[in-house]
Structure formats: structure tokens, C-alpha cells
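hey all, quick one before standup. I had two proteins in the batch that finished overnight and I want to keep them in one place so we stop losing track of which output belongs to which input. First protein below, input sequence then C-alpha cells straight from the run.
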Amino acid sequence: MSIVNNDFLIVFGVLLAVVAFLYSSVGHGGASGYLALMAIFAFPVSVMKPSALLLNLFVSGISFFFYYKKDFFKPRLFYPFAITSVPAAFIGGMIPLENSFYRILLGIVLILAALRLFGFFNSKEAESTKINIPLAMGIGFGIGLLSGMLGIGGGVILSPILLLLGWATLKETAAISSLFILVNSIAGLSGYFMGDKTFPTESFYLVPIAVFGGMLGAYYGSGYFSNKVLKYVLATVILLASVKLIV
């Protein structure tokens, strides 16, 4: 059975490429956007989590490559979060959630993602401060666990934290978030498979579309590209999806 109605396949593909483009331009894998689209197109809940993590792997990896080439990646800002987030994401990936609880929790996270795109959490960078390693490790664990449970990479949560605490610049945040999303997505998928879940193989057909959008977004985003109008449109789509999930 197709994971998306054939009548809307082209529309879904175009929107998927746009989401990958927008998210990769800011160093994200796009899982929250993919989940929002899947909710709107009535994907089964059992398909949403693994599909979003799969697409996250490719798009976040591409995004990290472009930002790394521009020398925005700072390892000292990445490791404290990753050390705890990776095992936590693995554990989260093994945790099955009831459909109703999953939809409500995901809806809340998507609202936060939409608010961030609207600029509520990252309108300006805080004054640069030294990273607090114990705090960063605690934050990493919490984000990792939630990421594995919901099928997201956690960048949409990590990015505003880095900026609000003044631990990284906008470009550094994009580079850190992209690798953070990549390793968490790998861990989350690994935990998912350990739970003896069936993987929706049709999700692989979506990968080339996401990769195409992700490459374009990462290329322009790692340079000077910015398009606020499209980001606001994407935020609106995510808000609509979150309402559909929660109500």
C-alpha cells in the first residue's frame, strides 16, 4: 500500500523538496517539517517516525558538509551535547508511544518549531559566553531522548538554546545542529530497529527528493541565502499540522 495517495504524490514531492531546502539552509535535517507534511497528508503514525529519521540522515549530512567546508563547525561546542544525546536517542527510539500521546507530544514540538521559524527564539544572538559543559550534557540527554521518541534529530530544539545562551553564532549553530541531528537520527533509527519494528521501505523513494532540496538549501544557506517569506509559509504549514495532530 502506498504511503501517500497517488493523486497527491506530486504535490507531496514538491512540498517535501521545499521543506528540505528550507531546513538545510539553516543547518537542519527537516524532520519536524517532514512530520508536519506527513500529518497533513494522513500518513500512518507507524510510518512517520522512521521515515522522518531516514530523510533526516541524508539532509543533515549534506547540510553539515557544506557548513563544515565553510569552517563554521566548532568541535568543542558539539561534543558535550553529543556524548549524552546519542545514547539517549537510542533509548528513545526503542520506546513505543501510544498513537494519541505521540500525536499530542509531536504537535507540541511542532508548535515550538514553527515559533522558532517565525523568529520568536532567534531574532538576535546573545552576547558570546563560554559553554557550560555539565549543563550542555544535561541538555543533550533531554533532547536526545525526546528526539528518539518522536523521530526528530533535535536541532529545532538545540539551535535556539545555543543562541539564547550565547554559546555559538548563527553559522556555528547551523553547523553544530546539522551534525547533532545526523548522529541522533542514526541512534534513533538504531533504537527503532532494536525494537523489532518494520521499516516502511517505500520511504526510500522519498530520499532523492529530499536530497535534491537539501543540497540546494545547504549550498545557499552556508553562504548568504535568506528568504523570510518562505520560512513564514513553512512555519504556518507546521502550525496547521500541529493543530491537526493535537485536536
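OK second protein, same deal, sequence then C-alpha cells:
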Amino acid sequence: MWLVSEAQGRIYGKLKEENFFGPKEEVKLEAHIKVPSYAAGRVIGKGGKTVNELQNLTSAEVVVPRDQTPDENDQVVVKITGHFYACQLAQRKIQEILAQVRRQQQQQKTAQSGQPQPRRK
């Protein structure tokens, strides 16, 4: 994810440097993030709460199509559109949600295997 974010930043910087847009022009970015289909609900949240909070926090539009068929890797696409930095922030927040889901899954696997779980400080 960081490579994509860094690449987007460099492209944005280059466009700005080359005066492809004026200082008052809006530059919008549309990013697509593939997320495991089992985690899409966490991005949406109960009643759309999480996605609404993401949109309010970042000012980017975040869309997780409900009728989307997962691809061959059981992933769905989350579409993020907005001002460059808003889109970047939304991407980071979604990655944080996915990391949290992965940690929870790992903890569940560890608990099911009977191995002691590491203590949190």
C-alpha cells in the first residue's frame, strides 16, 4: 500500500511542479482498493456507520458496491474519490481497518489452536 501511496504522491507532485493545474484548481484522485470480501462489511460498518465516518473524516467519497461479485481471489473493490490528500487519508484509514481485521483473525486462529496469546501492554 505504501508504494501505491508514494507513487500517487510523486505523480501529484510532478503534475503540480509542471503546472498542470492552477493553485486554486481542484485535483481529484480516484483510487480502487481491493479488499477481502469477508472484510468489506467492516469497511461499511453496521448500517453504513464506518463508511459514513470515513467520508466525514476525510471528505472523500468511499463506495463499497453491495452487489459486487468477488473476484477469483475473493476480493471486492472499494472505490475512493476525492481531493488528493482526502483520498490518501481514506486509503490509509481503510488499510488500518484491514490490518485490524487481520490481527483479529490471527488472534482467533491462535485461540483455536490452544496456544497462549501474547499479552498487550
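Flagging for whoever picks this up: The two ends are 28 Å apart (CA to CA). Residues 44 and 62 are 9 Å apart (CA to CA).
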